[in-house]
Write a structure and sequence with these properties.
- The structure is a single chain.
- 31% of the residues lie in helices and 21% in strands.
- The protein has 13 helices and 25 strands.
- Helix 2 packs parallel to helix 6.
- The chain is of the alpha/beta class and 594 residues long.
- The chain folds into 3 domains: 254 residues, Rossmann fold; 46 residues; 237 residues, Alpha-Beta Complex (paralog of FGE (formylglycine-generating enzyme)), CATH 3.90.1580.10.
- The longest helix is centred in the middle third of the chain and has 55 residues.
- Strands 2, 3, 4, 5, 9, 10, 11 and 14 form an 8-stranded mixed beta sheet that branches.
Length: 594
Protein backbone atom coordinates (compact mmCIF):
# COMPACT_ATOMS: atom_id res chain seq x y z
CA UNK A 1 0.00 0.00 0.00
CA UNK A 2 2.71 2.48 0.95
CA UNK A 3 6.37 3.10 1.80
CA UNK A 4 7.59 2.86 5.42
CA UNK A 5 9.28 3.70 8.20
CA UNK A 6 49.22 6.93 -28.44
CA UNK A 7 51.57 7.56 -25.70
CA UNK A 8 52.93 10.93 -26.87
CA UNK A 9 52.74 13.78 -24.36
CA UNK A 10 50.90 16.05 -26.84
CA UNK A 11 48.33 13.34 -27.63
CA UNK A 12 47.70 12.67 -23.96
CA UNK A 13 47.19 16.39 -23.37
CA UNK A 14 44.61 16.56 -26.15
CA UNK A 15 42.72 13.56 -24.77
CA UNK A 16 42.76 15.04 -21.26
CA UNK A 17 41.43 18.33 -22.62
CA UNK A 18 38.62 16.50 -24.44
CA UNK A 19 37.52 14.62 -21.34
CA UNK A 20 37.80 17.72 -19.17
CA UNK A 21 35.49 19.67 -21.47
CA UNK A 22 33.06 16.75 -21.68
CA UNK A 23 32.89 16.54 -17.90
CA UNK A 24 32.24 20.26 -17.57
CA UNK A 25 29.31 20.08 -19.98
CA UNK A 26 27.97 16.89 -18.50
CA UNK A 27 27.74 18.51 -15.08
CA UNK A 28 25.11 20.84 -16.49
CA UNK A 29 23.20 18.04 -18.24
CA UNK A 30 24.34 19.15 -21.72
CA UNK A 31 26.07 16.27 -23.46
CA UNK A 32 25.27 14.73 -26.82
CA UNK A 33 24.55 11.02 -26.38
CA UNK A 34 24.37 8.63 -29.31
CA UNK A 35 24.07 4.86 -29.66
CA UNK A 36 25.27 2.26 -32.16
CA UNK A 37 22.93 -0.49 -33.28
CA UNK A 38 23.85 -4.07 -34.16
CA UNK A 39 25.01 -2.98 -37.63
CA UNK A 40 27.26 -0.26 -36.18
CA UNK A 41 25.03 2.60 -37.36
CA UNK A 42 25.19 5.64 -35.11
CA UNK A 43 21.86 7.01 -33.85
CA UNK A 44 21.87 10.36 -32.06
CA UNK A 45 19.54 10.29 -29.07
CA UNK A 46 19.91 13.17 -26.65
CA UNK A 47 21.47 16.62 -26.45
CA UNK A 48 20.54 17.30 -22.84
CA UNK A 49 19.64 15.11 -19.85
CA UNK A 50 17.56 16.46 -16.96
CA UNK A 51 16.13 14.78 -13.85
CA UNK A 52 13.52 15.88 -11.30
CA UNK A 53 13.87 14.13 -7.94
CA UNK A 54 11.01 14.61 -5.46
CA UNK A 55 11.46 13.36 -1.91
CA UNK A 56 8.51 13.40 0.51
CA UNK A 57 9.69 12.72 4.07
CA UNK A 58 8.15 14.99 6.69
CA UNK A 59 4.45 14.10 6.38
CA UNK A 60 2.08 16.26 8.43
CA UNK A 61 -1.43 14.78 8.05
CA UNK A 62 -1.51 11.24 9.45
CA UNK A 63 1.10 9.41 7.37
CA UNK A 64 4.29 8.02 8.99
CA UNK A 65 7.37 10.15 8.44
CA UNK A 66 10.06 8.70 6.15
CA UNK A 67 13.51 9.74 7.42
CA UNK A 68 15.25 7.38 4.96
CA UNK A 69 13.96 9.34 1.96
CA UNK A 70 16.50 12.16 2.46
CA UNK A 71 19.43 9.75 2.09
CA UNK A 72 17.69 8.06 -0.88
CA UNK A 73 17.38 11.45 -2.63
CA UNK A 74 21.10 12.15 -2.13
CA UNK A 75 22.07 8.72 -3.51
CA UNK A 76 19.69 9.07 -6.48
CA UNK A 77 21.14 12.50 -7.26
CA UNK A 78 24.69 11.11 -7.11
CA UNK A 79 24.11 8.23 -9.55
CA UNK A 80 22.13 10.40 -12.00
CA UNK A 81 24.76 13.15 -12.03
CA UNK A 82 27.33 10.43 -12.69
CA UNK A 83 25.27 9.56 -15.79
CA UNK A 84 25.35 13.19 -16.97
CA UNK A 85 21.96 14.41 -15.72
CA UNK A 86 21.33 17.95 -14.56
CA UNK A 87 19.37 17.25 -11.36
CA UNK A 88 16.62 19.33 -9.76
CA UNK A 89 15.62 18.30 -6.21
CA UNK A 90 12.30 19.19 -4.54
CA UNK A 91 11.93 18.25 -0.86
CA UNK A 92 8.70 17.76 1.12
CA UNK A 93 6.28 19.38 -1.37
CA UNK A 94 2.66 20.25 -0.64
CA UNK A 95 0.15 19.48 -3.42
CA UNK A 96 0.53 22.93 -4.98
CA UNK A 97 4.33 22.74 -4.74
CA UNK A 98 4.23 19.25 -6.29
CA UNK A 99 2.18 20.42 -9.29
CA UNK A 100 4.33 23.54 -9.63
CA UNK A 101 7.51 21.42 -9.57
CA UNK A 102 6.28 19.25 -12.47
CA UNK A 103 5.04 22.24 -14.48
CA UNK A 104 8.19 24.34 -13.97
CA UNK A 105 10.49 21.42 -14.80
CA UNK A 106 8.56 20.45 -17.96
CA UNK A 107 8.25 24.05 -19.17
CA UNK A 108 12.00 24.59 -18.69
CA UNK A 109 13.39 21.30 -20.03
CA UNK A 110 10.56 19.26 -21.59
CA UNK A 111 9.77 21.33 -24.68
CA UNK A 112 12.88 20.30 -26.63
CA UNK A 113 12.54 17.03 -28.59
CA UNK A 114 16.22 16.07 -28.19
CA UNK A 115 16.19 16.19 -24.37
CA UNK A 116 15.64 13.17 -22.13
CA UNK A 117 13.74 13.58 -18.86
CA UNK A 118 13.75 11.39 -15.75
CA UNK A 119 11.30 11.78 -12.88
CA UNK A 120 11.95 10.07 -9.52
CA UNK A 121 9.46 10.20 -6.63
CA UNK A 122 10.29 8.77 -3.19
CA UNK A 123 7.48 8.87 -0.65
CA UNK A 124 4.11 7.40 0.17
CA UNK A 125 1.93 5.93 -2.58
CA UNK A 126 -1.65 4.67 -2.36
CA UNK A 127 -4.26 2.88 -4.49
CA UNK A 128 -8.03 3.45 -4.24
CA UNK A 129 -10.76 1.65 -6.15
CA UNK A 130 -12.89 4.29 -7.87
CA UNK A 131 -16.69 4.39 -7.79
CA UNK A 132 -16.76 3.16 -11.41
CA UNK A 133 -14.67 0.08 -10.54
CA UNK A 134 -11.21 0.99 -11.83
CA UNK A 135 -8.23 1.17 -9.50
CA UNK A 136 -6.39 4.50 -9.42
CA UNK A 137 -2.87 5.03 -8.09
CA UNK A 138 -1.85 8.18 -6.22
CA UNK A 139 1.43 9.75 -5.10
CA UNK A 140 1.11 11.51 -1.77
CA UNK A 141 2.44 15.03 -1.03
CA UNK A 142 3.28 15.84 2.59
CA UNK A 143 0.03 17.77 3.24
CA UNK A 144 -2.35 15.03 1.99
CA UNK A 145 -4.37 13.41 4.82
CA UNK A 146 -4.45 9.65 5.39
CA UNK A 147 -7.51 8.38 3.43
CA UNK A 148 -8.43 6.07 6.32
CA UNK A 149 -9.14 9.21 8.36
CA UNK A 150 -10.13 11.80 5.75
CA UNK A 151 -10.90 10.30 2.31
CA UNK A 152 -12.37 13.49 0.83
CA UNK A 153 -9.33 15.47 1.94
CA UNK A 154 -7.06 12.82 0.41
CA UNK A 155 -8.77 13.12 -3.00
CA UNK A 156 -8.30 16.91 -2.83
CA UNK A 157 -4.59 16.81 -1.99
CA UNK A 158 -3.13 13.60 -3.50
CA UNK A 159 -1.96 13.51 -7.14
CA UNK A 160 -3.58 10.76 -9.21
CA UNK A 161 -1.96 8.96 -12.13
CA UNK A 162 -4.34 10.68 -14.54
CA UNK A 163 -2.56 13.94 -13.70
CA UNK A 164 0.80 12.21 -14.24
CA UNK A 165 -0.51 11.14 -17.67
CA UNK A 166 -1.39 14.76 -18.50
CA UNK A 167 2.17 15.78 -17.61
CA UNK A 168 3.63 12.84 -19.57
CA UNK A 169 1.69 13.80 -22.71
CA UNK A 170 2.54 17.51 -22.37
CA UNK A 171 6.28 16.72 -22.62
CA UNK A 172 7.71 17.33 -26.10
CA UNK A 173 10.98 15.48 -25.45
CA UNK A 174 11.17 12.08 -27.15
CA UNK A 175 12.02 10.04 -24.07
CA UNK A 176 10.73 10.37 -20.51
CA UNK A 177 10.79 7.82 -17.70
CA UNK A 178 8.93 8.02 -14.39
CA UNK A 179 10.19 6.03 -11.38
CA UNK A 180 8.10 5.82 -8.22
CA UNK A 181 9.76 4.44 -5.08
CA UNK A 182 6.28 3.83 -3.68
CA UNK A 183 3.47 1.35 -4.27
CA UNK A 184 0.25 1.59 -6.25
CA UNK A 185 -1.44 -0.03 -9.22
CA UNK A 186 -0.35 0.68 -12.81
CA UNK A 187 -3.38 2.77 -13.70
CA UNK A 188 -2.05 4.57 -16.78
CA UNK A 189 0.51 2.18 -18.21
CA UNK A 190 0.43 -1.26 -19.72
CA UNK A 191 2.20 -3.79 -17.49
CA UNK A 192 5.09 -5.35 -19.38
CA UNK A 193 6.80 -8.70 -19.48
CA UNK A 194 8.72 -7.89 -22.66
CA UNK A 195 12.15 -9.34 -23.33
CA UNK A 196 14.63 -6.43 -23.81
CA UNK A 197 15.51 -5.92 -27.49
CA UNK A 198 18.85 -5.00 -28.95
CA UNK A 199 19.55 -1.32 -29.56
CA UNK A 200 18.05 -0.31 -32.95
CA UNK A 201 16.58 2.66 -34.79
CA UNK A 202 13.27 1.96 -33.05
CA UNK A 203 14.93 2.84 -29.74
CA UNK A 204 14.95 6.53 -30.72
CA UNK A 205 11.17 6.80 -31.28
CA UNK A 206 9.08 8.57 -28.59
CA UNK A 207 8.27 6.75 -25.36
CA UNK A 208 6.90 7.34 -21.86
CA UNK A 209 7.93 4.59 -19.40
CA UNK A 210 6.91 3.96 -15.80
CA UNK A 211 8.40 1.86 -13.01
CA UNK A 212 7.02 1.48 -9.47
CA UNK A 213 8.76 -0.21 -6.55
CA UNK A 214 5.72 -2.36 -5.72
CA UNK A 215 2.12 -3.07 -6.57
CA UNK A 216 -1.07 -2.06 -4.77
CA UNK A 217 -1.46 -2.99 -1.09
CA UNK A 218 2.25 -3.81 -0.65
CA UNK A 219 4.50 -2.15 1.92
CA UNK A 220 7.90 -0.71 1.05
CA UNK A 221 10.49 -0.36 3.85
CA UNK A 222 11.90 3.09 4.60
CA UNK A 223 15.38 1.70 3.84
CA UNK A 224 14.79 1.38 0.12
CA UNK A 225 15.65 -1.91 -1.59
CA UNK A 226 14.37 -0.34 -4.83
CA UNK A 227 16.90 2.51 -4.66
CA UNK A 228 19.79 0.16 -3.89
CA UNK A 229 18.97 -1.99 -6.91
CA UNK A 230 18.39 1.11 -9.10
CA UNK A 231 21.95 2.25 -8.34
CA UNK A 232 23.28 -1.26 -9.10
CA UNK A 233 21.35 -1.31 -12.36
CA UNK A 234 22.88 1.97 -13.57
CA UNK A 235 26.30 0.75 -12.48
CA UNK A 236 26.04 -1.88 -15.22
CA UNK A 237 24.30 -4.87 -13.67
CA UNK A 238 21.10 -4.31 -15.69
CA UNK A 239 22.96 -4.51 -19.03
CA UNK A 240 21.51 -7.94 -19.82
CA UNK A 241 22.79 -8.26 -23.39
CA UNK A 242 26.18 -6.66 -22.58
CA UNK A 243 25.93 -4.04 -25.34
CA UNK A 244 27.04 -1.16 -23.10
CA UNK A 245 23.56 0.31 -22.65
CA UNK A 246 20.81 -0.07 -20.07
CA UNK A 247 17.39 0.56 -21.59
CA UNK A 248 14.22 1.38 -19.67
CA UNK A 249 12.93 -2.11 -20.45
CA UNK A 250 16.13 -3.72 -19.14
CA UNK A 251 15.91 -1.54 -16.03
CA UNK A 252 12.32 -2.60 -15.34
CA UNK A 253 13.13 -6.28 -15.91
CA UNK A 254 16.19 -6.08 -13.65
CA UNK A 255 14.37 -4.26 -10.82
CA UNK A 256 11.46 -6.66 -10.96
CA UNK A 257 13.76 -9.64 -10.50
CA UNK A 258 16.16 -8.27 -7.89
CA UNK A 259 13.67 -6.36 -5.73
CA UNK A 260 11.37 -9.40 -5.51
CA UNK A 261 14.40 -11.48 -4.51
CA UNK A 262 15.91 -9.13 -1.91
CA UNK A 263 12.52 -8.21 -0.42
CA UNK A 264 11.78 -11.95 -0.05
CA UNK A 265 8.67 -11.63 -2.17
CA UNK A 266 7.13 -8.69 -0.28
CA UNK A 267 7.60 -6.23 -3.18
CA UNK A 268 6.67 -6.77 -6.83
CA UNK A 269 7.79 -3.82 -8.97
CA UNK A 270 5.67 -2.95 -11.98
CA UNK A 271 6.98 -1.52 -15.22
CA UNK A 272 5.61 -0.68 -18.63
CA UNK A 273 4.84 2.02 -21.18
CA UNK A 274 1.98 4.50 -21.49
CA UNK A 275 -1.19 3.28 -23.19
CA UNK A 276 -0.71 5.42 -26.29
CA UNK A 277 0.35 4.09 -29.72
CA UNK A 278 2.37 7.24 -30.40
CA UNK A 279 4.38 7.00 -27.18
CA UNK A 280 5.10 3.29 -26.63
CA UNK A 281 7.56 2.26 -29.38
CA UNK A 282 10.89 3.66 -28.14
CA UNK A 283 13.05 2.89 -25.13
CA UNK A 284 14.80 5.15 -22.63
CA UNK A 285 18.60 4.65 -22.75
CA UNK A 286 21.37 4.96 -20.16
CA UNK A 287 24.86 4.81 -21.67
CA UNK A 288 27.39 3.02 -19.50
CA UNK A 289 30.81 4.65 -19.17
CA UNK A 290 32.53 1.33 -19.93
CA UNK A 291 31.25 1.13 -23.52
CA UNK A 292 33.49 3.88 -24.95
CA UNK A 293 36.45 1.56 -25.73
CA UNK A 294 34.14 -1.06 -27.28
CA UNK A 295 32.42 1.46 -29.51
CA UNK A 296 35.72 2.66 -31.04
CA UNK A 297 37.92 -0.41 -30.62
CA UNK A 298 38.24 -0.87 -34.40
CA UNK A 299 39.48 2.70 -34.91
CA UNK A 300 43.09 3.89 -34.93
CA UNK A 301 44.42 6.28 -32.23
CA UNK A 302 44.41 9.16 -34.72
CA UNK A 303 40.75 8.47 -35.50
CA UNK A 304 39.97 8.48 -31.79
CA UNK A 305 41.71 11.82 -31.30
CA UNK A 306 40.05 13.32 -34.38
CA UNK A 307 36.62 12.24 -33.17
CA UNK A 308 37.21 13.64 -29.67
CA UNK A 309 38.57 16.92 -31.07
CA UNK A 310 35.46 17.23 -33.23
CA UNK A 311 33.26 16.74 -30.17
CA UNK A 312 35.34 19.30 -28.24
CA UNK A 313 34.91 21.90 -31.01
CA UNK A 314 31.15 21.29 -31.01
CA UNK A 315 30.96 21.69 -27.24
CA UNK A 316 33.13 24.85 -27.35
CA UNK A 317 30.74 26.31 -29.93
CA UNK A 318 27.80 25.51 -27.64
CA UNK A 319 29.55 27.20 -24.69
CA UNK A 320 30.29 30.28 -26.80
CA UNK A 321 26.68 30.49 -27.94
CA UNK A 322 25.41 30.16 -24.37
CA UNK A 323 27.75 32.95 -23.21
CA UNK A 324 26.61 35.25 -26.01
CA UNK A 325 22.97 34.57 -25.16
CA UNK A 326 23.60 35.25 -21.47
CA UNK A 327 25.39 38.52 -22.27
CA UNK A 328 22.52 39.58 -24.50
CA UNK A 329 19.95 38.70 -21.84
CA UNK A 330 21.93 40.64 -19.24
CA UNK A 331 22.02 43.73 -21.47
CA UNK A 332 18.30 43.47 -22.11
CA UNK A 333 17.54 43.12 -18.39
CA UNK A 334 19.68 46.15 -17.55
CA UNK A 335 17.91 48.21 -20.22
CA UNK A 336 14.54 47.06 -18.93
CA UNK A 337 15.48 48.07 -15.40
CA UNK A 338 16.56 51.53 -16.56
CA UNK A 339 13.37 52.09 -18.52
CA UNK A 340 11.20 50.83 -15.67
CA UNK A 341 12.86 53.26 -13.24
CA UNK A 342 12.37 56.19 -15.64
CA UNK A 343 8.72 55.32 -16.25
CA UNK A 344 7.76 54.30 -12.71
CA UNK A 345 5.87 57.45 -11.84
CA UNK A 346 4.05 57.57 -15.18
CA UNK A 347 3.00 53.90 -14.97
CA UNK A 348 1.63 54.40 -11.46
CA UNK A 349 -0.56 57.23 -12.72
CA UNK A 350 -1.72 55.15 -15.69
CA UNK A 351 -2.54 52.17 -13.46
CA UNK A 352 -4.66 54.36 -11.19
CA UNK A 353 -6.43 55.75 -14.24
CA UNK A 354 -7.08 52.20 -15.53
CA UNK A 355 -8.65 51.23 -12.18
CA UNK A 356 -11.03 54.21 -12.19
CA UNK A 357 -14.56 53.68 -13.61
CA UNK A 358 -14.88 54.74 -17.24
CA UNK A 359 -18.61 54.33 -18.05
CA UNK A 360 -18.25 55.99 -21.42
CA UNK A 361 -15.74 53.38 -22.52
CA UNK A 362 -16.20 50.24 -20.39
CA UNK A 363 -19.59 48.60 -20.14
CA UNK A 364 -21.00 45.10 -20.13
CA UNK A 365 -22.78 46.10 -23.33
CA UNK A 366 -25.48 44.09 -25.01
CA UNK A 367 -25.40 40.34 -25.49
CA UNK A 368 -25.95 38.33 -28.65
CA UNK A 369 -27.13 34.73 -29.04
CA UNK A 370 -26.24 32.91 -32.24
CA UNK A 371 -29.56 31.51 -33.58
CA UNK A 372 -27.87 28.48 -35.15
CA UNK A 373 -25.72 27.18 -32.29
CA UNK A 374 -27.14 28.97 -29.24
CA UNK A 375 -23.71 30.37 -28.38
CA UNK A 376 -23.97 33.52 -26.24
CA UNK A 377 -21.58 36.43 -26.89
CA UNK A 378 -20.98 39.62 -24.88
CA UNK A 379 -20.23 43.01 -26.46
CA UNK A 380 -16.91 44.43 -25.26
CA UNK A 381 -16.63 48.16 -25.89
CA UNK A 382 -13.22 49.17 -27.21
CA UNK A 383 -10.69 51.12 -25.20
CA UNK A 384 -7.08 51.38 -24.04
CA UNK A 385 -5.43 49.66 -21.06
CA UNK A 386 -2.10 48.69 -19.49
CA UNK A 387 -1.28 45.21 -20.82
CA UNK A 388 1.15 42.87 -19.06
CA UNK A 389 2.48 42.26 -15.55
CA UNK A 390 0.88 45.19 -13.71
CA UNK A 391 1.15 43.38 -10.34
CA UNK A 392 4.92 42.82 -10.58
CA UNK A 393 4.98 39.04 -9.98
CA UNK A 394 4.91 37.73 -13.54
CA UNK A 395 7.35 36.25 -16.01
CA UNK A 396 9.71 38.05 -18.42
CA UNK A 397 7.40 37.51 -21.41
CA UNK A 398 4.73 39.63 -19.66
CA UNK A 399 6.99 42.68 -19.68
CA UNK A 400 7.31 45.54 -20.21
CA UNK A 401 3.84 46.75 -19.22
CA UNK A 402 2.64 48.80 -22.20
CA UNK A 403 -0.48 50.63 -23.31
CA UNK A 404 -2.57 49.03 -26.08
CA UNK A 405 -5.99 49.80 -27.51
CA UNK A 406 -8.68 47.52 -28.95
CA UNK A 407 -11.77 48.17 -31.09
CA UNK A 408 -15.25 46.90 -30.19
CA UNK A 409 -15.79 43.13 -30.45
CA UNK A 410 -18.09 40.35 -29.27
CA UNK A 411 -16.59 37.46 -27.25
CA UNK A 412 -18.05 34.16 -26.08
CA UNK A 413 -19.75 34.42 -22.71
CA UNK A 414 -18.54 30.86 -22.08
CA UNK A 415 -15.89 28.57 -23.51
CA UNK A 416 -17.11 26.46 -26.49
CA UNK A 417 -18.91 23.46 -24.96
CA UNK A 418 -18.90 19.80 -25.91
CA UNK A 419 -22.50 20.12 -27.09
CA UNK A 420 -21.73 23.06 -29.38
CA UNK A 421 -18.68 21.25 -30.76
CA UNK A 422 -20.72 18.12 -31.57
CA UNK A 423 -23.36 20.22 -33.34
CA UNK A 424 -20.71 21.49 -35.77
CA UNK A 425 -18.16 18.64 -35.87
CA UNK A 426 -20.32 15.59 -34.86
CA UNK A 427 -17.53 13.73 -33.00
CA UNK A 428 -16.36 14.71 -29.50
CA UNK A 429 -12.57 14.77 -28.81
CA UNK A 430 -12.92 15.48 -25.07
CA UNK A 431 -11.22 13.43 -22.34
CA UNK A 432 -13.94 14.28 -19.80
CA UNK A 433 -16.97 13.22 -21.87
CA UNK A 434 -18.80 12.14 -18.69
CA UNK A 435 -18.93 15.79 -17.65
CA UNK A 436 -21.68 16.38 -20.25
CA UNK A 437 -22.62 18.67 -23.14
CA UNK A 438 -22.45 21.81 -20.97
CA UNK A 439 -18.79 21.26 -20.08
CA UNK A 440 -15.99 22.87 -22.09
CA UNK A 441 -14.73 20.89 -25.05
CA UNK A 442 -11.05 19.94 -24.56
CA UNK A 443 -8.30 17.93 -26.16
CA UNK A 444 -8.61 20.48 -28.99
CA UNK A 445 -5.50 21.62 -30.88
CA UNK A 446 -5.18 25.12 -32.38
CA UNK A 447 -5.54 23.55 -35.84
CA UNK A 448 -8.73 21.73 -34.80
CA UNK A 449 -10.17 24.96 -33.41
CA UNK A 450 -9.59 26.56 -36.82
CA UNK A 451 -11.46 23.69 -38.51
CA UNK A 452 -14.39 24.19 -36.12
CA UNK A 453 -14.51 27.95 -36.79
CA UNK A 454 -14.39 27.42 -40.58
CA UNK A 455 -17.40 25.07 -40.45
CA UNK A 456 -19.17 27.35 -37.94
CA UNK A 457 -18.84 30.31 -40.31
CA UNK A 458 -20.11 28.23 -43.24
CA UNK A 459 -23.15 27.15 -41.23
CA UNK A 460 -24.02 30.52 -39.65
CA UNK A 461 -22.88 32.98 -42.34
CA UNK A 462 -21.01 34.95 -39.64
CA UNK A 463 -17.32 35.79 -39.31
CA UNK A 464 -16.18 34.09 -36.09
CA UNK A 465 -12.50 33.66 -35.19
CA UNK A 466 -10.18 33.18 -32.22
CA UNK A 467 -9.48 36.31 -30.13
CA UNK A 468 -6.14 38.06 -30.35
CA UNK A 469 -4.00 38.21 -27.19
CA UNK A 470 -4.97 41.85 -26.72
CA UNK A 471 -8.70 41.15 -27.07
CA UNK A 472 -8.44 38.18 -24.72
CA UNK A 473 -6.60 40.07 -21.94
CA UNK A 474 -8.77 43.20 -22.33
CA UNK A 475 -11.94 41.09 -21.94
CA UNK A 476 -10.45 39.00 -19.09
CA UNK A 477 -9.64 42.19 -17.16
CA UNK A 478 -13.30 43.29 -17.42
CA UNK A 479 -12.43 45.91 -20.04
CA UNK A 480 -8.85 46.64 -19.00
CA UNK A 481 -9.17 46.95 -15.22
CA UNK A 482 -6.24 46.12 -12.94
CA UNK A 483 -7.40 42.61 -11.92
CA UNK A 484 -5.09 39.73 -11.08
CA UNK A 485 -7.59 37.11 -12.22
CA UNK A 486 -10.59 37.43 -14.51
CA UNK A 487 -13.22 38.68 -12.07
CA UNK A 488 -11.02 40.06 -9.30
CA UNK A 489 -8.17 39.02 -7.02
CA UNK A 490 -9.68 35.84 -5.50
CA UNK A 491 -8.88 32.66 -7.47
CA UNK A 492 -11.36 30.42 -5.61
CA UNK A 493 -14.43 32.46 -6.52
CA UNK A 494 -13.45 32.99 -10.17
CA UNK A 495 -11.75 29.78 -11.29
CA UNK A 496 -11.62 25.99 -11.35
CA UNK A 497 -7.96 25.14 -10.72
CA UNK A 498 -5.70 22.53 -9.08
CA UNK A 499 -6.89 23.11 -5.50
CA UNK A 500 -10.64 22.92 -6.11
CA UNK A 501 -11.28 21.14 -9.44
CA UNK A 502 -10.78 17.54 -8.35
CA UNK A 503 -8.52 17.09 -11.40
CA UNK A 504 -11.38 17.41 -13.91
CA UNK A 505 -13.50 19.91 -15.82
CA UNK A 506 -16.86 21.32 -14.67
CA UNK A 507 -19.88 22.79 -16.48
CA UNK A 508 -19.28 26.30 -17.83
CA UNK A 509 -20.64 29.27 -15.88
CA UNK A 510 -20.51 27.66 -12.43
CA UNK A 511 -17.95 30.14 -11.05
CA UNK A 512 -18.44 33.91 -10.65
CA UNK A 513 -18.34 36.03 -13.84
CA UNK A 514 -16.05 38.99 -14.34
CA UNK A 515 -17.25 42.59 -14.55
CA UNK A 516 -18.45 42.14 -18.14
CA UNK A 517 -20.46 39.01 -17.37
CA UNK A 518 -17.93 36.64 -18.95
CA UNK A 519 -17.21 33.28 -17.27
CA UNK A 520 -14.18 30.99 -16.82
CA UNK A 521 -11.49 33.16 -18.43
CA UNK A 522 -9.31 32.12 -15.49
CA UNK A 523 -9.05 28.36 -14.93
CA UNK A 524 -11.30 25.62 -16.38
CA UNK A 525 -9.29 24.99 -19.60
CA UNK A 526 -6.44 26.85 -21.35
CA UNK A 527 -7.84 28.95 -24.21
CA UNK A 528 -6.19 29.16 -27.63
CA UNK A 529 -5.83 32.65 -29.13
CA UNK A 530 -4.94 33.66 -32.68
CA UNK A 531 -1.38 34.93 -32.13
CA UNK A 532 1.99 33.29 -32.70
CA UNK A 533 3.95 33.14 -29.43
CA UNK A 534 6.94 35.51 -29.26
CA UNK A 535 8.56 35.98 -25.81
CA UNK A 536 9.83 39.49 -26.62
CA UNK A 537 6.83 40.80 -28.59
CA UNK A 538 5.76 43.29 -25.90
CA UNK A 539 8.96 45.30 -26.48
CA UNK A 540 7.89 46.18 -30.03
CA UNK A 541 4.10 45.81 -29.95
CA UNK A 542 2.13 48.56 -31.77
CA UNK A 543 -0.38 50.51 -29.69
CA UNK A 544 -3.55 49.94 -31.71
CA UNK A 545 -5.03 46.46 -32.22
CA UNK A 546 -1.73 44.50 -32.21
CA UNK A 547 -1.98 41.10 -33.91
CA UNK A 548 1.15 39.40 -32.55
CA UNK A 549 4.27 38.18 -34.33
CA UNK A 550 4.16 37.64 -38.11
CA UNK A 551 5.39 34.04 -37.79
CA UNK A 552 6.52 31.44 -35.28
CA UNK A 553 6.45 27.78 -34.28
CA UNK A 554 4.00 27.76 -31.35
CA UNK A 555 0.67 29.45 -30.71
CA UNK A 556 -0.46 31.29 -27.56
CA UNK A 557 -2.76 29.92 -24.84
CA UNK A 558 -4.18 32.04 -22.01
CA UNK A 559 -6.03 31.66 -18.72
CA UNK A 560 -4.69 28.48 -17.06
CA UNK A 561 -6.73 25.36 -16.37
CA UNK A 562 -8.15 22.91 -13.85
CA UNK A 563 -4.65 21.37 -13.50
CA UNK A 564 -2.74 24.60 -12.76
CA UNK A 565 -1.79 26.69 -9.72
CA UNK A 566 -2.96 30.33 -9.29
CA UNK A 567 0.24 31.64 -10.95
CA UNK A 568 -1.06 30.39 -14.33
CA UNK A 569 -4.59 31.79 -13.78
CA UNK A 570 -3.42 35.42 -13.85
CA UNK A 571 -4.94 37.55 -16.61
CA UNK A 572 -1.44 38.53 -17.81
CA UNK A 573 0.07 34.99 -17.87
CA UNK A 574 1.18 33.75 -21.33
CA UNK A 575 1.80 30.19 -22.48
CA UNK A 576 2.67 28.58 -25.83
CA UNK A 577 2.21 25.19 -27.50
CA UNK A 578 2.66 23.50 -30.89
CA UNK A 579 -0.59 24.18 -32.82
CA UNK A 580 -0.98 20.47 -33.64
CA UNK A 581 -0.86 19.29 -30.03
CA UNK A 582 -3.92 18.70 -27.87
CA UNK A 583 -4.35 17.95 -24.17
CA UNK A 584 -7.14 17.39 -21.66
CA UNK A 585 -6.87 20.96 -20.38
CA UNK A 586 -6.85 22.85 -23.74
CA UNK A 587 -10.01 24.51 -25.17
CA UNK A 588 -11.08 27.87 -26.64
CA UNK A 589 -13.80 30.53 -27.02
CA UNK A 590 -14.69 32.57 -30.11
CA UNK A 591 -15.05 36.27 -30.99
CA UNK A 592 -16.47 38.26 -33.86
CA UNK A 593 -16.26 41.95 -34.64
CA UNK A 594 -19.26 44.16 -33.96
Amino acid sequence: MKRYVVCLISVCAVIALCFSAAYSKESRGVKIISIKDQQGKEIKLYKESHALIIGASNYTAGWPKLPGVKKDVEETKRILEKHGFNVTVVADPSREQLIQAFEKFINKYGLRPDNRLLFYFAGHGHTIKQAYGEEMGYIVPVDAPNPNKDKDGFFTKAMDMQQIEVFARRIQSKHAIFLFDSCFSGSIFALSRAVPENISYKTATPVRQFITSGSAEEQVPDKSIFLTQFVSALSGEADMNKDGYVTGTELGEYLQGTVVNYSKGSQHPQYGKIRNPNLDKGDFVFQLASIAPTAISSETPSQVISEELSQLREEKAMIKKEREELAQQKAIMEEKKRLEEERQKLEKEKTELAMAPRPSKITTGSSYTDPTTGMELVLVKGGCFQMGDTFGNGDSDEKPVHEVCADDFYIGKYEVTQGQWKEIMVSNPSWFKDCGDNCPVEQVSWNAAQDFIKKLNQKTGKNYRLPTEVEWEYAARSGGKSEKYSGGNDADSAAWYSSNSGSKTHPVGTKSPNGLGIYDMSGSVWEWVQDWYDEGYYRRSPRNNPRGADSGTIRVLRGGSWANTPANLRASDRNGLDPSHRYADDGFRVVRTK
